[in-house]
Design a protein that fits this description.
about 110 residues; mainly alpha; about 5% strand; globular
């Protein structure tokens, strides 16, 4: 259990680092900020994201699930807003960064 959490944390940090490298709209000031962002992203995905999904369920149903992309980008934007040294320029940068992080997470499974 602990091993899986550490692996997911490292994969999230690698995904965020890859997003920083590939995208102009995602920036980290320090290397250790990657790990703090990955940890905060895991906590936000565990607590905040399910609440947002539940509260926006009618919009998600009407949009045939496409509003989940907005929620995922918003959670990543929330992490950037809460963590000094982690900057996301806008919605599209957050969405593309989320796609990169999600793809690195899928490589574990």
């Amino acid at each position: 259990m602990f091993y899986q959490m550490v692996v997911r944390l490292l994969l999230s940090a690698c995904g965020l680092g890859l997003a920083d490298y590939l995208l102009d709209g995602v920036r980290f000031t320090h290397f250790d900020t990657l790990f703090w962002a990955a940890l905060l992203l895991g906590i936000a995905n565990t607590i905040v994201r399910p609440l947002l999904v539940l509260l926006t369920l009618p919009i998600t149903i009407i949009s045939l699930g496409l509003f989940l992309l907005v929620i995922n980008a918003a959670v990543l934007g929330l992490v950037a807003a809460l963590l000094p040294g982690f900057y996301i320029d806008g919605f599209w940068s957050a969405l593309l960064a989320w796609v990169i992080v999600a793809l690195t997470q899928r490589s574990e499974e």
